[in-house]
Design goal:
By secondary structure, the chain is α/β, with parallel strands linked by helices. It has one domain: HUPs (Rossmann fold), CATH 3.40.50.620. It contains five helices and seven strands. Strands 5-2-1-6-7 form a five-stranded parallel sheet, sandwiched between helices. A two-stranded antiparallel ribbon has the order 3-4. It is globular, with a radius of gyration of 17 Å.
Length: 157
């Protein structure tokens, strides 16, 4: 099979519960020895933001049992924390494999941005099989982007 001279773009879709090592290994196998460009897409669930917009939403501390208002600021903090943890894990794996990887935070409803990020041509989108009905799959279907679903083990906490 001859590969075109076009650079392979490997997009790895992750969520807070994704097994990053499984997805990363699939991305490395897909790229092989080719000079691929890797991009991790953190598909964040916007339900935290929707919940924070409700006036009665409360957050209860597991340790103290105290309840406080769940605000948009707190939702943003949770998103930022999750993104930072995922990025650190992905960066570590990429460094060990001596590969560079970009990291993008993508709200699941931002399909316009998804279309802009995931280019047609020599591109592959790798994502956990549990996301087979995610809106991003519909965005790339019929655009020449290969989609690879990976059966993942449970993410390590």
């Amino acid at each position: 099979m001859s590969r075109s001279k076009e650079t392979l773009h490997v997009f790895i879709a992750v969520t807070e519960t994704s097994s990053i090592p499984d997805l990363w290994q699939a991305a490395l196998r897909t790229a092989g020895d080719s000079p691929a460009e890797f991009v991790a897409l953190y598909l964040h669930d916007e339900r935290w933001h929707r919940a924070a917009s409700l006036p009665f939403t409360r957050e209860i501390s597991k340790t103290a049992g105290t309840a406080v208002d769940f605000t948009l600021r707190r939702a943003e903090q949770l998103l930022s924390d999750a993104a930072r943890q995922l990025k650190n894990q992905i960066d570590k794996l990429a460094s060990e494999a001596e590969r560079a990887i970009a990291f993008e935070v993508l709200p699941e409803s931002d399909q316009v941005r998804a279309r802009g990020l995931i280019s047609a041509g020599e591109s592959v989108l790798i994502l956990p099989s549990i996301l087979h009905e995610h809106p991003i799959c519909g965005e790339v279907t019929g655009r020449g982007v290969r989609v690879l679903f990976v059966e993942c083990g449970l993410a390590q906490a």
